[in-house]
Amino acid sequence: MRTILYLIRKEFLQIFRDKFIGKAIFAVPVVQMLILVPAVTFEIRRVNLGIVNQDMSAESRTLVSQLEGSAFFKIRNTSFQEAEGRDWLHRGDCDLVVHIPADFGRELGKGNPVKIMVAANAINAVNAQLSWAYLNGVIRDYNLDILAQNPGKSSYLPMATQPGSVLKSEIVTPIAIGAKSDIPDLKSEIQNPTSDIPQIQVTNRYWYNESLNYKYYMLPGILGILVLAIGFVLAGLNLVKEKESGTIEQINVTPVKKYHFILAKMFPFVVIGMIDIAIGLVIGKLVFGLPFAGNLGLLFLGSFIFMVAVLGLALFISTFSDTQQQFMFTAFFFMIIFILMSGIFTPIDSMPVWAQKLDMINPAVYVMRINRMVLLKGSTFNDISGDLLMLSVIAVAFTGLAVNRYRKTA
Amino acid sequence: MKNAVISVHDLVKKFGSFVANDHLSFEVYEGEIFGFLGANGAGKTTALRILSGLSAPTSGKVLVAGFDAARDPEKIKKNIGYMCQKFSLYNDLTVRENIMLYGGIYGMRKALIRERCEELLERLRFMEYGNRLISDLPLGLRQKLAFSVAVLHEPRIVFLDEPTGGVDPITRRQFWEMIYETAARGITIFVTTHYMDEAEYCDRISIMNEGRIVALDTPDGLKNKYRVDSVEEVFVKIVRSGKISV
After folding, report:
1. Chain A residues with CB-CB distance to B91 below 8 A
2. Would you state the CATH architecture of domain B31-54+73-245?
3. ipTM
């Protein structure tokens, strides 16, 4: 057992003797947190909106000013000509073009259903759908206002319909907002119609992240990615470097036990990973005001097992890589898959079933979930015990593979 | 009676269809300096790696320090020291850190490692280099240090694979003095080389050619047999005749 202490000491000495790496392993997470947390977001603000208004009635101007007043939209261009609207989309000046037809105000005044056309740039489908949803919200408010001012005239209430999928910016689908008259007639004697329109009022409260702050959502995930990169690349390269320089041969000819050697390679990086997580949490708290809803001990436990799993795989890969190039190529393959399939950007539930099955051996999936549940939801050990168990199984399996595949006698 | 500390019988090592070691049989006796000679690619290093447990034999029986190289390579490793032609101490560790590491790996007590370490630095007149990185040392010093580290744990046998490659003549002489001192302590030396003057220093030498051992005797025995004045001439004669016979 004393042997492993000598080996661990050697690994620490070597890591910190490299002046650049010794500093970078603590500087990189700080920089990553400060850049990635605010930068990686799904929040959509200031969608560039173009308005083709061929109507110029009071009604259409009210709609335009309501769009203008929304925090989500920024009116970049206005015109009277439909063709210009297409140009804006084509050039990328606008992401969303609203076309108000010439008879909008007149038809509305008569109580007839009216249509406005909306074209969205759907290269980024998520963006297009979200902008569409925001636009619908504004139109709904507009409708309610009309209803309130004109009790009895319910037939023109326009309801939004989903836009068709659009794949390229060149192909924009004009969307018709159809009218439906499914709101019951209102009694004429109503004095203050707004408060008495019978309708379902949805009041919602967002649990666990009440302000819908994307930073809170991304930060726990980025904590996982941060240590993934450090552990994966540095530990794996470390072993391959020993192969390249020939020092591993001198180790292989000693009676050192295989698992001593592998565990000694893992240990310093697990410690460094834990320190990096602590640094990340401090930044999260001080810079981004991240709430710590749960027990941080659980978070560290999860990250510890995660690190072992990642290091195990990295060392396994390095046992069959002869050069640093081979290792990096393989490591990047796994890292990209692990990160993109971890659920940090896209929900795992929306992946195809086979991909979800495959994802069961992706350690990043579990650490994302554990970090988010513990930090945002305040989950307890029992809540995350399943994830911890799976992560442990993966950690033991990968480490076992690494020890097994490492050959002292060729 | 001489006691065989290494005994090899019908050792064969193949890499695919290439036969690197073709039915080798020999014995090395306790406390002797055994020179393993051969041209480049003759299969010396392959055999040495098998004897030191780094490589598994394809067939044949190999006993080193009483353990079977095919079945118990890890037990062999406890009883041997090894120094490879490619310098293998850690360049980014200091002299003392390397000594501590290898002493620790062989399970030596900390106090003993420290004691041997200081003793060794003194003997090599290395004191001022103790806290220097290996990468800062000249090659000759590194080789001497690597040899000292290989015998730090007092193994029964030490394997040296071209230990003096690229080293100046004075350092080579000093290196061989170290080998003699070590052999005098009862440690068996198994050394590969292609410096023929070094072969003269060995108790017995074997000469390999194309995977086979073609001669094995004391240097004087070989010189008498081939009626020449030096091992070098013996070597040239043997290797040349070997080439012609193929």
Report:
1. 245
2. 3-Layer(aba) Sandwich (3.40)
3. 0.90
